Amino acid sequence: MKKTLIILGCCVALLLLLLGAALLLANGGEEAPEETAESLSLMDRPGSEVASVSVKNASGEYTVTRDGDALTVHDIPAKLVNMDYVDMLLDEASSVQYTSLVTTELSRLADYGLAEPEAEVEISYTDGEGLRLLIGAEEPISSGRYFMEEGGDSIYIMKNSRAIRFVSPVEVFINYIIIPPEDTNQPLSELQDFTISGSAVGEPIVVRAVLPEREEEQLKALSYGSITHLIVSPNEHEASPTTLSTIADQLLGLMSEGIVAYNCSEEELAAYGFDEPYIQYDFTYLRGAEGEPEAYSLRVSRDEEGYIATLNDDGVVYRILDLDFLHVSYEELVMRWFISPFISEVTALELEGQGGGWRFEISSDTVSSVEATLNGEELDSALFRKFYNLVMSAASDSGRLAEPPELTEPVLSLRVEYEDDEKPDDVLRFYSAGQRRLYVEVNGVCEFTMRENWLNVTLNALENVKMCKDFSSDW
């Protein structure tokens, strides 16, 4: 038994010896890379001592130069440069680090991608010294990059994160933030006036911010209660807060997914379809309460790969994601409720139908303190408030009509009078549209329809209010 164990042990040792020899032969007799606990450096200087960095790679050539404190990145306009990326490049050019020495045997440079380097990097320092690096292929295990100093006698591995700018096109230095993100958690206060146009929406949609200093918008806004934005064209409506939030959240802070082209003329931009954009946002952006609104124009077009965009006159074509704000429609932006004034802002409701006419006089000290009369007769306050809410619940549940309908006699008319004498009355007229639906004309404009059941429930409630009886408001 003991003899058997000895023989077995010898066999295992021989097997290990043969395996080691096979590995050595497979590596051509080279030693494994010398791993280091920390990165070592071929050059170690402060980034401020880099005078220039010239890079030649598969994407082309670019040079970053220093003139005092100013840095120029090839032909990219200074306002578009991502300085964080430039600082990384200067750090990588001033502190040339490696994680391991691979070999000093230079007879097989092609195996490391160094016979025809993926990038050639020439670095000049402010004291006149220089360094020229050759960047090779990725190392499969560590995902680093093989590299060497031109004319040197050793091949090293550099972390890929420190080599990425050497093998990338110059476009990586263009700021990937297309529109600066908002500095607040209330983006609707920063997205002010805007117009949406382009082939995706057809007729331009014009939206105005309801600001304290805008008396005209404040007066119009009385029809809708508390709102932030008012649609003024094609027709007047309250803008949907949900859709507004989608636009603001995605537009402010819009990111680039890649650069298609830069330094483009208007003629070159037109070739990408920006002369007739798919969608265009012209907007004012207030970044911070103390600042002044800035004007932006974002044009979006489409190509075979997706969506591309250009901003203002920057001449850059960015690739962007397919986001919801690119597909906003007029119907989505319009609030469903035709009007929704605070009861405290209203002095009278007049309803007129085939059964006669009814005038509700309203007085209120606050939103919660309301008194009302019907044709001079005092009404139960809670019952009237319920009726008021039912009347104001009239809302569209369908798309915009393709063209204005031919209207005859209304089945019901509603007039709303306001406490503010300068505020014009709102007049809604309801017409039969067939198929249990109503056309709704708001201040002379009919764009939408609604369910006819609102009319039936409202007329029933009207009869009950006159008799001080409760009613159902579910329609």
Strand order of the largest sheet: 1-5-9-8-7-6-2-3-4
Give the termini separation: 95 Å
| Number of E strands | 26
Provide a count of the helices: 9
Strand content: 35-45%
Poorly predicted sequence stretches spanning 5 or more consecutive residues: 1-37
| Helical residues, percent | 10-25%
Major beta sheet summary: 9 strands, antiparallel
Shape: elongated
Kindly report the average pLDDT value: 90
Please identify the structural class as seen in this structure. Answer: alpha+beta
Radius of gyration: 36 Å
Explain what this protein looks like in three dimensions.
This protein has 475 residues and is an alpha+beta fold. It contains 9 helices and 26 strands. The protein has helices at residues 2-26, 83-94, 160-167, 215-221, 241-251, 266-271, 330-333, 381-391, 453-466; strands spanning 34-44, 50-57, 60-67, 70-73, 95-103, 119-125, 130-138, 145-149, 155-158, 191-197, 205-209, 229-233, 237-238, 258-261, 279-285, 294-303, 306-311, 317-320, 346-353, 356-366, 369-374, 377-378, 412-418, 426-434, 437-442, 445-451. A 9-stranded antiparallel sheet has the order 1-5-9-8-7-6-2-3-4. The protein has a 9-stranded antiparallel sheet with strand order 13-12-11-10-15-16-17-18-14, sandwiched between helices. It has an 8-stranded antiparallel sheet with strand order 22-21-20-19-23-24-25-26, with helices on one face. Strand 12 (229-233) and strand 13 (237-238) form a beta hairpin. Helix 2 crosses helix 3 and helix 8 runs antiparallel to helix 9. The longest helix has 25 residues, at 2-26. It is elongated, with a radius of gyration of 36 Å. The model is unreliable at 1-37 (pLDDT under 50).
